[in-house]
Amino acid sequence: MSLGIRIDAGTRDEPKKFRRRLLAWYERHARDLPWRASRDPYRVWISEIMLQQTRVAAVIEHYHEFLRRFPTVEKLAAAREASVLAAWSGLGYYRRARMLHAAARVIMREHGGEFPANEEGLRALPGIGRYTAAAIASIAFGEVVAVVDGNVERVLQRMSGERLVGEQLWTAANHMLDAKRPGDFNQAMMELGAMVCTPRAPGCLTCPVVELCATRGRMNVGAKTAPQKKREIDYSLHWREENCRGGEVFLAQRARNASLMAGLWELPENFDAENRRSAEPWLTLRHSITVTDYTVRVWRIAASSRSDGKWIPVDRLQRLALTGLARKILRKAGALATENSLQGHGGTE
Ligand code: SF4
Questions:
Q1: Distance CA 51, CA 150 (A)
Q2: Could you give all domains of the chain from N- to C-terminal order, each with its CATH number?
Q3: Secondary structure (DSSP) of 284-323
Q4: Which residues line ligand 1 (CB under 6 A)?
Q5: Closest CA to ligand 1's atom 2
Q6: Which atom of ligand 1 lies at the shortest distance from residue 158's CA?
């Protein structure tokens, strides 16, 4: 396999030149971000988890406050989950906060409050994958292990002119890594991707490694659109008509700390539907959320003995905070607004 960056063309000096230029550029141009002031594994870890799926500016706002409330792994482990989630508020994707909390408890319980000092040990902790383990291991402990995130991937592809994928990217990143300064090198690669070799308009004129680059901006790797995924989901529509005019439907409220659509009302999922694939659902429709296309099947059921929700009079539905999908189903079913009536079988949207 060619690893690119013209590194297997008999030019053994090129990775060396690449490291030297990249690190010199990083020393002069790196952004002054608060987590870069410390190599404390706890601080590196908090910043890496916050930076997943969240913009740098939003993380800066929350980073100091989170550390003020939980200055050590011990304090984080001892906190109630509700306090950790409250401190995470505004960062979204609350699963990350739960995993952070769980990992802090494992560190206290199983490691005597000390972080595992290598990638392998870190990866065994909840919520820490290959990228995060390599980032903490290299930055906090100087382990010679490369990281690959979206920025590094783009730099490697453009430098090499090859569409490297999967394990090829990790091999290439490790091949280029500076063994004496792995943490700085990894941060410099990510900084180059974030600030210079950007997805749509790479700044090749100011790029410190332009002379070593195989494509110099001619390779478009930023315009990828994520493929749509297809999913199927079943809901129950429990509707009883005897108690009040228009009847009542049975809805469940999403947890108040759910990472998506917290506190909104929705139809309960129907987990039995799997067992009756031969039967026809009462209603079928399609619904898209970001990169996922859902086929939604709704099973009409007369009454419910479930306790995980509440009967809601149909004439109150309009004022209720419903998820977009619940609103769509209830409209289709004729329980909300007046577009459709309850007569007849639902169709496919
Ligand atoms: S020269 Fe341009 S394309 Fe190549 S790494 Fe630098 S910014 Fe990216």
A1: 12
A2: 13-212 (1.10.340.30), 229-333 (3.90.79.10)
A3: EEEEEETTEEEEEEEEEES-----SSEEEEGGGGGGS-B-
A4: 155, 158-159, 196-197, 202-204, 207, 209-210, 213, 215-217
A5: 204
A6: 3
Q: What pLDDT, in 10s, does the model give residues 164-198?
A: 999 999 999 999 999 999 999 999 999 999 999 99
Name the residue of 18, 22, 158 to mutate for ligand 1: max ligand atoms within 8 A of Cβ. 158
Q: 14, 48, 143, 153: which one is catalytic?
A: 48
Query: How many Å lie between the centroid of ligand 1 and the Cα of residue 209?
Result: 7
Does residue 271 or residue 189 have the better pLDDT? 189
* Dihedral angle over CA of 36, 41, 43, 49, nearest 10: 100
pTM over 0.85: no
Rounded to whole angstroms, the Cα distance separating 154 from 169 reads 10
